[in-house]
Specification:
The chain is mainly alpha-helical. The chain contains 2 helices and no strands. The protein starts with a helix and ends in a 16-residue tail after the last helix. It comes from Paenibacillus antri.
């Protein structure tokens, strides 16, 4: 009986070691997964903030583009060109009366 009881006592020790090793490995992998998830969550928050800034800039550029498009369309009209030249360059038609001088910039 002494021999049988020694084998029974040794068996639970080895099983206990295997369980410890198993839980140590599982715990290590779990900690790694938690830290990786935490890091990726932070990166996603940064990217979302950056995306918000870029979307705002996109709207500004689209508005600027629309204003340029309307300017191009208006520049096809001879009357608009004449108004722009008179305003920007202070030009007049022959026979026009000028009261005062155009503002110099």
């Amino acid at each position: 009986m002494a021999k049988g009881s020694a084998k029974q006592a040794a068996k639970p020790k080895s099983e206990l070691r295997r369980r410890r090793l198993y839980f140590t490995i599982v715990g290590g992998v779990s900690l790694w997964a938690i830290f990786a998830f935490w890091d990726q969550t932070g990166a996603m928050k940064e990217k979302k903030a950056e995306m918000g800034v870029l979307l705002q800039r996109l709207e500004e550029v689209r508005a600027e583009h629309d204003s340029y498009q309307s300017e191009v369309t208006r520049l096809q009209d001879p009357e608009y060109i004449e108004q722009k030249v008179r305003k920007d360059f202070g030009m007049t038609r022959p026979g026009d009366k000028v009261f005062g001088s155009p503002a110099e910039e």
